[in-house]
């Protein structure tokens, strides 16, 4: 079978991770086109990745008869519009999370995705494709933990990125810390429990970077969730981790518990010297989830070739976004928010 021809929009930090994987690490596809408003990023795509077509207008790229599929790694506010346009042009679509920032727009997008059953749509919840999370999922499915009663999630970015984030927050809308960061944890909670979130309450504080108060962003946020079966979850999201990139998940059930990456180790090396015993930590998301990004892109291409649907759907994007927005509302109102079933 011929290779799937792919175009990508967005060549920022995460966009380059995806672009390099599509060009070098994912079997059965060819990265043919790239779209960005930044000329230096297009130059990089041509010189480093061998891209043949470059665009500054996304609408022009999705019309290209060369392309079979589109990877969307643009700012979150563009996702819905770009998904809809690509689907209408007959392309298979992979979109990074979140699927969008507005529930009405997401519901419209979900409906449009549903009109094209022969096209593959996949959302970028890459933690589902990480080996450690997959192993934990197998244990849960096998009943090793019994009934899950509590899930605790940490997602904390390295403090080394705070200065750049403060500048970004002043010029752009990330959707807020729960949408930008906790949405991965929200998806994991739904994935592990197979239950929807019913109620949320959230708090937060800007300690090291009070400048974030002025732009409506949080340095550290926490949310407490109640699931539809009375199960519980705690989310901690932060942007100021001194030791590196800390993503940790704890599952507690009636028969046992497990922790995924309780220590965010870089590798299996222990250094023993005058400082004691030192284990290096992962420093960013491309390092921690390197293989997961490859695995999810490979799954997208495989779904196209095998004419099947991926596990992660537009509905997952809608439900996770509902919870993230409810967390934001709970923080801003200091009230318990009930998520209505629709």
Task: Describe the protein.
The chain is α/β, with parallel strands linked by helices. The chain folds into two domains: 4-119, Rossmann fold (3-Layer(aba) Sandwich); 128-288 and 320-338, 2-Layer Sandwich (Dihydrodipicolinate Reductase, domain 2), CATH 3.30.360. Helices cover 38% and strands 25% of the residues. One of its GO terms (cellular component) is cytoplasm. Belongs to the Gfo/Idh/MocA family. InterPro entries: Gfo/Idh/MocA-like_OxRdtase_N, GFO_IDH_MocA-like_dom, Myo_inos_IolG, NAD(P)-bd_dom_sf.
What is the fold named in CATH at topology level of the largest domain?
Dihydrodipicolinate Reductase, domain 2
Write down the overall mean pLDDT: 95
Q: Widest sheet: strand order?
A: 12-11-7-10-9-8-15
Structural class label? alpha/beta
Q: Spans with pLDDT under 50 lasting ≥5 residues?
A: none
Order of helices and strands: EHEHEHEHEHEHEHHEEEEEEEHHHE
What is the CATH C-level name of the largest domain? Alpha Beta
Q: Using only CA atoms, what is the Rg?
A: 20 Å
What is the CATH architecture assignment of the largest domain?
Answer: 2-Layer Sandwich
Number of helices: 11
Helix content: 25-40%
Q: What about the largest sheet?
A: 7 strands, mixed
Strand residue percentage: 25-35%
Straight-line distance between termini: 42 Å
**Number of strand segments:** 15
CATH homologous superfamily classification of the largest domain: Dihydrodipicolinate Reductase, domain 2
Number of domains: 2
Shape: globular
């Amino acid at each position: 079978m011929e290779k799937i021809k792919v175009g990508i929009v967005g060549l920022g930090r995460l966009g380059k991770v995806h672009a390099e994987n599509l060009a070098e690490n994912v079997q059965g596809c060819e990265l043919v086109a790239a779209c960005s408003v930044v000329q230096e990023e297009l130059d990089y795509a041509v010189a480093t990745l061998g891209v043949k077509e470059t665009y500054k207008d996304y609408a022009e790229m999705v019309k290209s008869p060369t392309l079979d599929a589109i990877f969307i790694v643009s700012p979150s506010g563009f996702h819905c519009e770009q998904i809809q346009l690509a689907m209408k042009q007959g392309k298979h679509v992979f979109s990074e999370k979140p699927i969008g920032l507005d529930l009405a727009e997401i519901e419209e997008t979900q409906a449009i995705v549903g009109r094209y059953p022969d096209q593959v749509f996949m959302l970028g919840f890459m933690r589902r494709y990480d080996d450690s999370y997959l192993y934990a999922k197998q244990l849960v499915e096998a009943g090793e933990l019994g009934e899950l009663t509590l899930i605790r999630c940490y997602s904390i970015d390295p403090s080394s990125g705070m200065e750049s984030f403060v500048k970004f927050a002043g010029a752009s809308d990330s959707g807020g810390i729960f949408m930008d960061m906790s949405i991965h944890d929200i998806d994991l909670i739904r994935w592990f429990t197979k239950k929807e979130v019913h109620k949320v309450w959230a708090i937060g504080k800007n300690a090291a970077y009070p400048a974030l108060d002025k732009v409506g962003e949080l340095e550290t946020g926490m949310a407490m969730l109640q699931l539809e079966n009375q199960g519980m979850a705690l989310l901690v999201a932060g942007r100021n981790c001194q030791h590196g990139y800390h993503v940790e998940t704890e599952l507690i059930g009636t028969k046992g518990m497990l922790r995924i990456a309780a220590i965010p180790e870089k590798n299996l090396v222990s250094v023993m010297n005058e400082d004691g015993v030192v284990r290096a930590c992962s420093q960013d998301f491309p390092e921690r989830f390197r293989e997961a990004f490859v695995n999810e892109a490979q799954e997208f291409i495989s779904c196209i070739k095998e004419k099947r649907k991926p596990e992660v759907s537009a509905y997952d994007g809608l439900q996770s976004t509902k919870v993230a927005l409810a967390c934001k509302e709970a923080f801003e109102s200091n009230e318990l928010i009930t998520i209505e079933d629709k």
